[in-house]
């Protein structure tokens, strides 16, 4: 929204800012005179996720950086899907864009060459020197996803892993999930210490780190904890965190 305001009028159809973005608004109307409707399907910081394709009366654009390939998508509902590859597709340094042919070439004002999708379409995505290693890693990863059973299998695994960890968060009196249950992300599972155990937050982080948990600290803007369960993360890693939480519970 911040960046779009530099190019035209922006309408925010709904927000859960008053609740620190812990839920996805449901009751809103998309203006039918808007040029497009933009959504981000998964919120990595606050741990909420849109798990179904929305219906929009205007062209829909989606940032799917953090949950692409974790569930089947009806691509026909979108005029453009884009994202950074660094979550479920490839190492950082490459991006993906799925854009309808009739969506490009419609803008009358000048677009810098590097930012014009038509430039990349015309040049087979090699207008500039391509980041070969991330692109090759994306190829290998796509082959791996296909060999595992495709996106449907990735979704099954994502649900299994998320259900395991959320069940422990809900059972364990020391921890509290931050997102509304119906909107909980399968990719980024956010939780905090229960109020009565708040002073043990640093202790648990140290405890978990010593037991091999990497990157469990929540985003710097919200604190707490965040378990990112992208496609590459095996179920055994989720179980290791659950075991860690249960061990910490017994100590306290």
TrEMBL record:
Binding site for pyridoxal 5'-phosphate: 44, 63, 86, 128-129
Organism of origin: Bacteroides xylanisolvens XB1A
Functional summary from the UniProt entry: Catalyzes the reversible conversion of 3-phosphohydroxypyruvate to phosphoserine and of 3-hydroxy-2-oxo-4-phosphonooxybutanoate to phosphohydroxythreonine.
Residue stretches making up the Aminotransferase class V domain: 24-241
Keywords assigned by UniProt, alphabetized: Amino-acid biosynthesis, Aminotransferase, Cytoplasm, Pyridoxal phosphate, Pyridoxine biosynthesis, Serine biosynthesis, Transferase
Listed InterPro entries: Aminotrans_V_dom, Pser_aminoTfrase, PyrdxlP-dep_Trfase, PyrdxlP-dep_Trfase_major, PyrdxlP-dep_Trfase_small
Subunit structure: Homodimer.
Enzyme class per UniProt: transferase
Pfam families: Aminotran_5 (PF00266)
Record-listed E.C. numbers: 2.6.1.52
Top-level taxon in the UniProt lineage: Bacteria
Catalytic activity: O-phospho-L-serine + 2-oxoglutarate = 3-phosphooxypyruvate + L-glutamate; 4-(phosphooxy)-L-threonine + 2-oxoglutarate = (R)-3-hydroxy-2-oxo-4-phosphooxybutanoate + L-glutamate
GO biological process: L-serine biosynthetic process; pyridoxine biosynthetic process
Gene3D superfamilies reported in the protein's UniProt record: Aspartate Aminotransferase, domain 1, Type I PLP-dependent aspartate aminotransferase-like (Major domain)
Cofactor(s) listed in the protein's UniProt record: pyridoxal 5'-phosphate
Protein name as annotated: Phosphoserine aminotransferase
């Amino acid at each position: 929204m911040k960046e779009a305001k530099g190019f035209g009028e922006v309408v925010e159809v709904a927000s859960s800012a008053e609740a620190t973005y812990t839920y996805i608004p449901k009751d809103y109307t998309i203006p039918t005179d808007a040029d497009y409707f933009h959504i981000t399907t998964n919120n990595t910081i606050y741990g909420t996720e849109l798990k179904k394709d929305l219906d929009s009366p205007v062209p829909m654009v989606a940032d799917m950086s953090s949950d692409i390939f974790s569930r089947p998508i009806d691509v026909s509902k979108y005029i453009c899907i884009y994202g950074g590859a660094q979550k479920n597709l490839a190492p950082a340094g490459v991006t993906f864009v799925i854009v309808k042919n009739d969506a490009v070439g419609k803008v009358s004002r000048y677009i810098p060459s590097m930012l014009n999708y038509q430039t990349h379409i015309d040049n087979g995505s090699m207008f500039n020197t391509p980041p070969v290693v991330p692109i090759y890693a994306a190829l290998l990863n796509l082959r791996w996803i296909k060999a595992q059973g495709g996106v449907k299998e990735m979704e099954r695994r994502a649900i299994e892993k998320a259900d395991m960890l959320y069940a422990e968060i809900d059972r364990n009196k020391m921890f509290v999930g931050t997102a509304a249950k119906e909107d909980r992300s399968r990719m980024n599972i956010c939780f905090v210490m229960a109020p009565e155990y708040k002073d043990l937050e640093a202790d648990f982080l140290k405890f978990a780190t010593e037991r091999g948990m990497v990157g469990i600290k929540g985003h710097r803007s919200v604190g707490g904890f965040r378990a990112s369960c992208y496609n590459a993360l095996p179920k055994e890693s989720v179980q290791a965190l659950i075991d860690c939480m249960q061990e910490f519970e017994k100590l306290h």
